[in-house]
Amino acid sequence: MFHQPSKDLDYIIVLGAQVNGTKLSNSLRLRVERAREYLEDNPETCAVLSGGKGTGEDVTEAEAMYRYLEKKGISPKRLLKEEHSTNTSENLKFSLEIIDTKEDEKGKEASIGVVTNNFHVYRGVALGKKLGCSYIEGIPSKSNKFLQVNYLVREFFGVVKDKAAGNM
């Protein structure tokens, strides 16, 4: 059971993952489905769909997420694409730059949720805080339970790498 994220966040950032051609990988589909649920429950929230184009991908990860959410009935007006990032650190950096340009006219800092698989939430939130976002929280999606150990080991090394690089 996951904690319940805050209601009515200004933005959610959906972190990209592999796309096979134009289709979402299972890991990315779980993230995007969690984002869809949040967006349906919070109609004023906008989403930044974050991810560039990697090897074997016919479209950017952001574009694949956009198409999926639009087909599921989420208004394109609520979907912003960040299509240049190649890793988690860049996902957050470039997405926060998009959000900064849309910040409230009164100077209010945007409230943000990071949507990613459960094993990846710690790093996503930590990177956002290091980049200066004071109101950021995780919105975990499920992950393949059979691959959980693999994901956790890989994520451990991702955290070590980002800490060593000064990103966290």
From TrEMBL:
Question: Which superkingdom heads the taxonomic lineage of this protein's source?
Answer: Bacteria
GO cellular component terms listed in the entry, alphabetical order:
plasma membrane
Q: In which organism is this protein found?
A: Blautia pseudococcoides
Kindly give the CDD domains that the UniProt entry links to this protein.
YdcF-like (cd06259)
DUF218 domain sequence ranges: 10-158
Tell me which Gene3D superfamilies the record gives.
HUPs
What is the name listed in the Swiss-Prot or TrEMBL entry for this protein? DUF218 domain-containing protein
Any one Gene Ontology biological process term?
A: Gram-negative-bacterium-type cell wall biogenesis
